[in-house]
Amino acid sequence: MIEALRKRIDEAAQVVIFTGAGISTESGIPDFRSPGGVWTRYAPIYFNEFVASAESRREAWRRKFELDETLLTARPNKGHRAIARLAHIGKVRHVITQNIDNLHQDSGLSENQVIELHGNGTYATCLDCGARHELEAIKAAFLLDEEPPVCRLCGGIVKSATISFGQAMPEEPMRRAREATLACDLFLAVGSSLQVYPAAGFPILARRNGADLVILNREPTPLDDIASLVIHEEIGAVLAQVARLNDH
Ligand code: NAD
Ligand code: ZN
Q1: What is the rounded CA–CA span in Å between residue 105 and residue 114?
Q2: What does the pLDDT look like over 191-217, one tens digit per residue?
Q3: Whose CA is nearest to atom 25 of ligand 1?
Q4: What CATH class does 30-73+120-162 carry?
Q5: What is the pTM (predicted TM-score) of this model?
Q6: Is ligand 1 within 6 A of the CB of residue 191?
Q7: Which of 26, 32, 222, 184 lies closest to 94, judged by CA?
């Protein structure tokens, strides 16, 4: 199986890697479905509630700071490093990720190489003017009076730079992801249950466009049937071998 994946990567001209929460579990960040995880403990706060109500914003920031300890201290694992190596040698030009943990960038990929479909949880932005705000300063102020932050430049609402339920998908990353998907001849989906749309539409688009589709995930996914190779194994071990990380 691993040998088959390695061969496909060797033979491909342009590989796109598509990642989900599964690639980051080995860094200690729980995936979506883990029992007891924060994701299952709270009902999601929808985007329109966040915008409409200061109380919802207060609750969103409380939860965010509860979650952040894990998110902000996590380090890239073998899987991220293997992908960075494949990018470094020119095999992989783009990584499309559903993750918000910044670990692909932390493993050495540039902003141009990473396409974030669901935003980034390691900083915040103003919903009106787009200015970036750092979490540390927001947290220090929030802990004093629990007032939800506003933009110092324009007075707009400041929100974690992630895409919430009910929030429009970010246009530019969606456009870039589509372009990368149509340009590749091998699309490798790693650590995603492939159930969240529109993100899960990209492997389907790749397949329709004639690319080879390979899925690496511990559990079966609804797209296993249309893949040409499916590997139900642990991500770090498989990718490290594929990228020959152990040889160096
Ligand atoms: P998911 O939780 O739906 O699916 C993850 C898949 O990875 C599961 O099928 C699981 O079996 C598999 N997996 C987990 N660890 C693995 C390992 N070590 N080896 C092999 N397989 C492994 O995740 P998703 O498809 O990305 O969708 C969840 C949504 O939640 C995404 O939209 C994402 O934005 C968000 N989310 C992000 C993070 C993060 O940034 N790290 C974490 C949790 C959720
Ligand atoms: Zn602003």
Answers
A1: 7
A2: 999 998 999 999 999 999 999 999 999
A3: 192
A4: alpha beta
A5: 0.94
A6: yes
A7: 184
